Amino acid sequence: MTASERTALKRVTDAIRPLPDPDWQAFEAIWHPFTARRKVMLTEAGTPEKYLYFVLEGVQRVYYLDELHREATIVFSYPPSFGGVVDSFMLRQPSRYYFETLTPSVFLRASSHDLTRLMAEFPAIESMIRLGLTHAFSGILERLAELQCYSSADKFRKLLQRSPHILQLVPHRYLANYIGVDPTNFSKLINSVKL
């Protein structure tokens, strides 16, 4: 891990909850560099998520595929953030979702075995992970309310409020899927929404 990668990981970890030095040293030691080309399936539905990813470069998405092969984009990840199919990772069960790169991507990743071991050994790490998951869960609840109550235009506005740079990062067809509009209508939506 390079110094800049270490700094990025520490900055995001500290934003969740700073770790005491011995805990941080143990935590940073389990992360290893990993790269993937564009459109690589990192996790497939039916297989357990083996890694928690820390995104250094690139854009990825987690999506669901139903029995009629309709896709539902659940979440995007991009730097600097954690990524992967977290429920599968934490519960050690087969994933119900796919995790793929949309662009060439650079990560640090930690195995489920290593992170579980550290959480048992270091209460501060377990507390930081729990707090990070609680923040993620809060975001999911907010997203569920948006899906059920907001118009497409309002969902798009909220997305741009959370991630103003997303239009430059993610291909528009995936953004259309994320907010639940047909890709052919997405350009009309962009032009009609006052930002």
UniProtKB/TrEMBL annotation:
Segments forming domain Cyclic nucleotide-binding: 39-121
Highest rank taxon of the organism: Bacteria
Entry-linked InterPro entries: cNMP-bd_dom (IPR000595), cNMP-bd_dom_sf (IPR018490), RmlC-like_jellyroll (IPR014710)
Alphabetized Pfam families for the sequence: cNMP_binding (PF00027)
Name of this protein: Cyclic nucleotide-binding protein
